[in-house]
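Exercise 3.2. Students should predict the tertiary structure of the chain below and write it as structure tokens, then compare their answer with the key that follows.

Predict this chain's 3D structure.
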Amino acid sequence: MLKGNKTVPLILALLLVAAGIFTMVDPIGMHPDLKNQAWRVINFVIFLAILYYAGGKKLFTFFPGRSKEIETELSDLDARRKQAEQKLAEVEQSIADLENEKQAILAQAKAQGDALKAEIIAKAESAAVMIKQQAKVSAEQEAKLALDEIRTELAESVTQAAEAMIKKKLKAEDHKALINDSLTRVVLN
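Answer key:
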């Protein structure tokens, strides 16, 4: 009810008058405990009337307004719950994507490692072939040098042996003839 309405004060005034009459005159001869109980009820009704008059409008607008606030909060909470579920799904998807990405990175790293391994093996095999060729060439050169050295030593040994043999078999006159013959060849050539 509105503050300008005169019905509420009138009802309150009538209740007070009735309470006063009830106190002065006991028309029905009530037992004192029952009379005390009646006064309590009357006081409670008056208290409720004062409360309604003072803030009744606010009470009746508070509870429906609070209900609407609760409904709004519930719908907001429901929307936030849906957003949280969506974010959870996104996070779970990103975790699954991370697992797939991890597997892809591991596969790529393994492929690169295998390619690097193959390249290193190919270079090592190539180097081994070159080392073998160089070793073969070196061995051939060393063998040739050793053979030349052996030939030189053999030639010297043969020359010394031939010289020794010739000295034994050659006499001084044969020796002079040979020297003259060698000198003649050198002069003619």
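Discussion points: Residues 120 and 126 are 10 Å apart (CA to CA). The chain has a mean pLDDT of 79.
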